[in-house]
Design a protein that fits this description.
With about 210 residues, the protein is mostly helical. It is about 75% helix and about 0% strand. The protein starts with a helix and ends with a helix. Keywords: Membrane, Transmembrane, Transmembrane helix.
Length: about 210
């Protein structure tokens, strides 16, 4: 099986492969929400209940991507359905790139400062790297445009603001507790970076599609 075939629409958009990817992401999303279970329970006990929406960052990104794949399997037929689809697709790409990179960065930053990595950490690195790869692979098959991407950027920046204003950011390795300002700045910068990468990838994908 050639690399060009693995990159092709005929492989990536094959319904059997899409269903496999959909199921894997459903499982990963459910596991992600379970992983955040303790922090979600803590948030409900100690903060306003509406903040719970902003706690599970990575599994919500995975949920967005799962919806995006679902829309490739069963495309909406109405104009409003497609607009909602485009929003989820843009959120899927931006947040998958952002939180995929963020989680791995925090794990390795913790290791740099003396944290001992466990097998769960390596599992998270692999799964979050996969989030980035799949988002950038499928951006060319998603239908969103630049204007919708701006909405996704606004939501992700809002999430950053809520996380660090209310103190509900993902729990960090203990060795990073003294570096919260640096983590906050890195997080916001990574959001901007992810939006730019998503926009560039989208433009390149559309250019290649026109040439094909």
């Amino acid at each position: 099986m050639s690399i060009s075939y693995l990159w092709s629409r005929s492989f990536l958009c094959n319904r059997k492969f899409l269903w496999l990817l959909f199921i894997c992401n459903v499982i990963g999303t459910i596991y992600g929400y379970i992983w955040y279970g303790n922090q979600m329970a803590y948030t409900l006990e100690n903060y306003a209940s509406w903040l719970i929406v902003f706690v599970p960052d990575s599994p919500t990104a995975s949920l967005f991507f799962t919806i995006g794949i679902g829309c490739l399997l069963y495309k909406p037929r109405s104009m409003w359905g497609n607009q909602i689809r485009y929003l989820f697709e843009s959120l899927a790409v931006v947040t998958s790139v952002k939180y995929g990179l963020w989680a791995s960065s925090m794990i390795f930053a913790g290791q740099y400062q003396g944290d001992v990595l466990q097998w769960q950490d390596w599992m998270l690195v692999v799964s979050h790297t996969a989030m980035v790869i799949e988002a950038l692979l499928y951006v060319r098959f998603f239908g969103f445009n630049t204007s919708v991407l701006i909405g996704a950027a606004a939501w992700t920046l809002l999430n950053d603001f809520i996380d660090y204003s209310y103190g509900i950011y993902p729990w960090l390795p203990s060795v990073l507790s003294d570096n919260l300002t640096a983590v906050q700045n890195f997080t916001i910068g990574l959001t901007i970076f992810s939006v730019i990468v998503s926009w560039i990838t989208l433009r390149l994908a559309r250019r290649d599609t026109r040439r094909a």
